[in-house]
Design brief:
The longest helix is centred in the last third of the chain and has 19 residues. This protein folds into two domains: about 60 residues, 434 Repressor (Amino-terminal Domain), CATH 1.10.260; about 250 residues, P-loop containing nucleotide triphosphate hydrolases (Rossmann fold), CATH 3.40.50. It is an alpha/beta fold. α1 packs parallel to α4, α2 packs across α3 and α10 crosses α12. About 45% of the residues lie in helices and about 15% in strands.
Amino acid sequence: MARSADRYQERIKRAGIRQRDLADRLGVHETTVSRWFNSNSMPDPIGVKLDQLLGEIESELQPEYLINSDEYQKEITSERRPVSLASQLNECVSDLEKRRKGTANKSETCWSTLDESWGNWIAPGRLIIVSGKTGEGKTSFAQQLSESLSIQKASLYFSLEMPAKDLSWRTISRFSGVQLQVLEDPSKLTKSNVLAIEEAYRSAANLNLNIVDWADDISEIVSIIERTYESLKGSKAPLESVFIDYIQLMKAPGDNRAYQIGNITRELKKVAIKLGVTVVAVSQYNREYKRNDGQLPEITDLKDSSQIAHDADLIIDINVPKHDPKDGYDSVNVRVLKSRDYKRQNKKLAVVRETMNFEDIVSA
């Protein structure tokens, strides 16, 4: 029995295998391989072996290979049709009934302060912007949120500012309570530190959190999101949330930066709706906004484009209260700059500065 050789041509080309090397790994002569492809006919046992070989090579390649494959493009461009209002109304009523009975699937974060006040703020199809001044914890907030959401479901974290290993050190510090500067100098570790780190590893290693630290183009990022979603569909931990850190480091077509940023946020919102995931994106402020007159940044201060405000469903600002630099600070304000569905109140979280761990404020 024979199978078509054409089906392998594109995979072999993308994998970068020369015909001579392919023949060596299949245990046949190079002219034999050439004859198979010229006649578009390959013996079935060889086809099985070739499938296995290509699968091993592809698993070692970066995801761009799979993203650009014809098979993947067909997979993610499946036909989507309009949905009836009646069906959506039925879903709304059903969801309301489940929430009334307390049986609805609700994405709970690590902060009951926000969950209880803001309701189901982590919701399918939603684009959330986390903004903040440099050094006030917006990345730490986003990373901690991604960790809490990946306990039951999967999260995908795009880190454009720091490598995955640096993020992992932050996770160990946050979970163990051991300061980063201590982790960088093993001579300072105490026995209790080591035990705490071991426990942190056991806990954090169970998170369904995947980090991408090499992609920055919007089309590439969207493709990775879609492929990850498809690969986890039907699993015990399907993809529920996506994190981008941060928007201003992303690339998009166009000469005008404001236009590029607008394109980026539109694409992020579209993929959130299409897949039913929550996209949380970190954003910087413009350098021009007033820092020293006590005026807090607003939506218009978001860097590069007002389109961010149009596309976002929820925009929050991580802001450190005014304090004496000598004393430092032990809390942050979580200000709501925009909430599309209903008005949400500003809240406050405690912060452990040594590990940049945000916590609920416990009343005395």
